[in-house]
Design a protein that fits this description.
Layout (H helix, E strand, L loop, with lengths): L10 H9 L4 H4 L4 H8 L3 H14 L6 H9 L5 H4 L4 H12 L5 H16 L10 H11 L14 H11 L1
């Protein structure tokens, strides 16, 4: 299991954990209803925190990927079971309204592989050749968004933020 999970806790949430002598690492072992009680958080916020922990438990998948799954309405690996990486990735691009960096598709392939095999030895880059072979053979759906991720306002803002 991954050592560090980023919860993006608020200052108040961090303080409540500290008062109860609960570390962030310990937080990932609590159920959403327990998280809600510990933090005085809404059921929705507690559900999101539990999902962040579960999704980031997969090696090489970080908070950005976990947050994207949550924005698509997923809160557990069980909800994703039985879905294909292609199905999830194509839905992700439609949800975002732009096509994504190829490594994102590799991450979906890792996600599905992990759900099916509980294999902690793989990382997203282990699926690059599989993705390339698949896309060379089948291509992308005809209704794939036309805009690239780096042409979006979100990406432009990230570039500005990095420059300071």
């Amino acid at each position: 299991m991954k050592k560090n999970v980023d919860f993006e806790l608020t200052t108040v949430e961090k303080q409540k954990l500290k008062e109860q002598k609960i570390t962030r690492r310990m937080l990932r072992d609590y159920a959403p209803d327990e998280i809600a009680a510990l933090l005085g958080a809404s059921p929705q916020r507690a559900k999101e925190l539990a999902a962040l922990a579960e999704f980031q438990s997969i090696p090489s998948l970080g908070i950005g990927f976990a947050k994207e799954l949550i924005t698509q309405g997923y809160y557990s690996l069980a909800q994703l079971k039985g879905k294909s990486a292609v199905e999830l990735f194509d839905a992700y691009e439609k949800h975002c309204g732009c096509w994504a960096d190829p490594c994102v598709e590799d991450s979906y392939r890792l996600l599905v592989h992990y759900i099916e095999h509980q294999d902690e030895t793989k990382r997203w880059w282990n699926f690059t050749s599989e993705r390339k072979a698949y896309r060379n053979r089948y291509g992308f759906p005809p209704d794939r968004p036309m805009t690239a991720w780096y042409e979006t306002d979100k990406y432009a803002k990230m570039k500005v933020d990095k420059k300071g």
